[in-house]
Amino acid sequence: MYFAALLARTEDGWEASDTELDDVETLSDLADLAREASAEDDTVLVLIEQEDAWFGVVRVDGEDDPRIYVSDAAAAARSSYGEILLTDELLGREPGDDGPDLDSLDLDGTEDGEPASAEDDEEETGSAETITHSPLGDGEILDDLGVSEKELRALDAEDALSAIAEALGASEVLETVR
Predict the structure, then answer these.
(1) 88-92 long-range CB contacts below 8 Å, 24 or more apart?
(2) pTM exceeding 0.85
(3) Measuring CA to CA, which residue among 1, 11, 98, 10 is closest to residue 54?
(4) Are strands 67-70 and 110-111 parallel, antiparallel or unpaired?
(5) What are the pLDDT digits (tens) for 121-162?
(6) Percentages of the chain per state (helix, strand, coil), in multiples of 5
(7) How does residue 178 score in pLDDT terms, banded at 50, 70 and 90?
(8) Which of 70, 80, 100, 126 is most buried, with most CB under 10 Å away?
C-alpha cells in the first residue's frame, strides 16, 4: 500500500489533497500534477510513503525543476512509485543507462551448464550499479519550511509524513486526506 498527498502552500496556509499516482509515469508528470494543485506559483509538496518502508518528498516551486528527497533509495527502487522519483540525475548515472538488461543476466550463476567462477562474479558485481539503503536527494528540501536536513534524515518512514506535516503546521489538513 502507498499513500500520496499534495500539500499546496497558499496565502491562508496549507491545503491538502490526496492523489492517485496510477497515471503518473515520470517525474515530469508528477511535477505537472503538483503545479495543477496551486492556483499561483506557490510551493507544492508531494508526499509519498510506501508500506512504512520509505517515504519521498517532491517539492515544486512554480516552474522550477522539482527537488526530490527519498528516505531509502533501495526500498524506493523496488516500488513503481519510487522509480518515478529515482531519476538518472538523482542516481548519478547517464540518461538511458538503466544498468544491466535483466533479460541478458544469467540469474542462476551458470552459463551453458558451467559453474560460474569467482572471477566472473567479481566482474559482474563491479560493473552493476547498486542502490544503497540510504537517503538520496536534496536533504535541504524543507529547510526553509522548518525541517532541517538532520531532522529529515532522522525521520522514521512509519511516521515521517505526519512529522513533516506537523512541522509545517499542516497536520490537520493532511489528516483530512489520509
Answers:
(1) 90/136, 90/137, 91/129, 91/131, 91/136
(2) no
(3) 1
(4) unpaired
(5) 444 433 335 788 899 999 999 999 999 999 999 999 989 999
(6) 35, 25, 40
(7) confident
(8) 70
